[in-house]
Amino acid sequence: MKYEWKKAAKEFYCPKNKPEVVEVPSFKFFILEGKGNPNEKDFSEAVGVLYSLAYAVKMMPKKGIIPEGYFDYTVFPLEGVWDLAEEARHLEKLDKNSLIYKIMIRQPDFVTEDLAQKVIESLKSKKPHVLLDKVKFQSIEDGLCVQMLHLGPYDEEPKSFAIMEDYCRDNNLKRIEKIHRELYISDIRKTEPSKLKTVLRFKIERVE
């Protein structure tokens, strides 16, 4: 039976459009880090490399390679962890060129460090790209977080973050870092900006 994250892991990928607390366990990812405007070519190139790796893992059985524990699944959505360069933190208006990002695509549990490196090396020989040398394979555990579904353009996300901050103040929760995570549930190439679905999430701690 095919594993579909929208159905099997709703608590992480399909929250409601209001804040909620969630405990996020450790997941494995292919990761690329960068800095700059996500509307520029460098960012789309990095996204393309990550998807190439993700689909290379998924399609292994079609090439006669079946990793131990393999199961059929839907490729996970792109995610991004976002920060801002120190020099731009105090500007009134967001300078997208000063954004620092870590973009990633989650991998199923059967993907080991060894398997991930083999997939990277295989792609280097078949579809060489300079960014393949910068790809990392890591496990990340976000732990206790507040999240909500943001509906609409990315530039309107501050409205949802304000709602999340208010929720924290009203429920004895404290945001513990400025960086945040975004999960891109919609395909931006096929979706109107007003209908984009993005999960917003940041780490918290409970306050007595």
TrEMBL record:
Source organism superkingdom? Bacteria
Against Pfam families, the record matches this protein to:
GyrI-like (PF06445)
GyrI-like small molecule binding domain mapped to chain residues:
18-202
State the protein's name.
Answer: GyrI-like small molecule binding domain-containing protein
Native source organism of the sequence: Clostridium omnivorum
